[in-house]
Input
Amino acid sequence: MNETTTAGAVVIEREMPHPPQKVWRALTQSALIEAWLLKNDFEPVIGHRFTLRAPPMPQWNGLVDCEVLAIEPPARLAYSWKVGEDGPGAMRTVVTLTLTPTPGGTHLRMEQSGFRTDQENNRRGAEFGWRRFMDGLERVVAGLD
Output
């Protein structure tokens, strides 16, 4: 596992001992996404708007509004990630998941980019959250046939 933070972004990379097609299923099937990320109405179609749903917390309604920006099976998936109402407090970023075949399985790179300089707390929270989500993704993929 390799984790780095670049200016305005969170990058997490993982080597998974599974073929890209298997990892891709967990990234693009709604029920599997729910098992490692959040409840959702995702569809793997460019332009599809979907919502990720978490339990509400103080100062967050638990909703992440997204739109599929790119889908290149089984190599690349990108979607917008918007938290909060429109305005200066909203966080608008892009999540890009890139899968590269390796001799032992798949190298997965997740990048969430576009954090503003005044969103350092959001970026740190995303870094913590994505580490946990990637652990869950690994468990889900390992359980697939």
In short: The chain has a mean pLDDT of 92. Residues 2-142 form a domain with the Alpha-D-Glucose-1,6-Bisphosphate; Chain A, domain 4 fold (CATH 3.30.530.20). The radius of gyration is 15 Å.
